[in-house]
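Interim report, section 4.2 (structural modelling).
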Amino acid sequence: MGEPLDAQAAVAALRRSLVAALGDGAGGADAVARVCQACVQALPVDGAAISVIDGAGNRELLHASDEIIRRVESVQFTLGEGPCVDTFRARRPVLVPDLAGATAWPVFAAEMAGQPIGAIFAFPIQHGAIGIGAMDLYRRAPGWLTDDELATALGIVDLAAMALLGTQVAGGQIDAWLAPLPRHRREVHQATGMLIAEFGIPAEQALARLRLYAFSTGTLIEDVAHALTQRRLHPAELDT
Amino acid sequence: MGQSADPGMARETRLLHAFVDLADTLVDDYDIVDVLHQLVESCVDLFDATAAGLLLSDQRGGLELLASSSEQSRLLELFQLQADEGPCLDCFRTGEPVSAPDIGAESTRWPRFSAQAVDQGFLAVHAVPLRLRGQTIGALNLFATRLGPMHPQDLRVARALADTATIGILQERAIHRGEVLTEQLQAALNNRITIEQAKGVLAHAGDLDMSEAFQLLRQYGRANSTRLSEIAHRVVTGTLAPGVVINHSPVRAD
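Predicted structure of the assembly:
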């Protein structure tokens, strides 16, 4: 592990910036731009883009920091192949430190020939079974990230996930929403599942309902989750 | 080695089973969370351990509990506490096994950890690194209700099991590439969340406790030759009805 301090500082700064952006009611677009900007500033990458993708595979580009990454995104989603397409489908990062040596995407590689792209790092934006989209970074020179840079990138992806989930949440609560989930998160995930079963709603709505109930009753989300998993609180109580 | 045949044979058979079970989880399209669960269950079975857990690096500077031999919430807290202090954190940082044959004597080294461990009745604790080629990716944690060090032979077996699991985590593609480790670890961390969400769905739909829900997911995945995390994903996203998993009668392929 590298020095986590730098990574923590970069992620904390982005978190403050996102709270300000979303708290102002400026909406998701500005927040997403800030996420991409933070990547370019804190990491040795030249461009960043964020797309949201729905269950049917429809994709919407929310922000691209430059024309090169914009082209990377549009070519991949037109062709239906490439690291960013794979990262969402496989629900795992797809990290390509040397694009010239990658053989997995021949058509994409042919389309990208001549572009100044050495490396592509694609991260899914997700939370368990909640698939939100992808964050894609490129850099001109090939090469891998240091442990500290990787920690920064992962911390930024975590924030992007919560920011994109949080844009559905009423204003004034965004600070709590973007706070890292408590360490003992297991019961929060389990309680999310219980609400899915009770109401037949998607996971993202179940999580939002859980957090909303915690906010409105002045309770910590982990305490609500604990009461649910211990069967001291029935999921039906969280009907809205 | 003039050991009397019976206990030695029994021991050898159990050992063999542990490795076969672990190897079984590593065929084809295996799931890291499933592999690690198999590992902690084998450890409780093989060693004089009453509880076992496994923490992996989250690559953000922390350790995350990926598998545990029990769902008891105070025990889970004790495992996860070691992201901040305790034998697992020390083991992860040094890449070497860490042993405390008497937890009660460790109140200076790990004040919070030792107090909570003693409070739960544990007397000794051991941590074994998950390590490959100089890189430590996590730690295996064993708790005992008997004072004293781990038998050297048990320690060797524990390390061999941990090494096997580590190779399992990294072998899917070339094991020397840092980006592969990241892809694997991050997928496993997210899969852990999905599995917890799916346990919640099944627990509420079938009025089950969380460990029953987990066993059902695992059995259904094995019976259908599908990864545990894929079954969990289908349950959470509604493409696999909870009733199908709950009412499925497992066919044990022993």
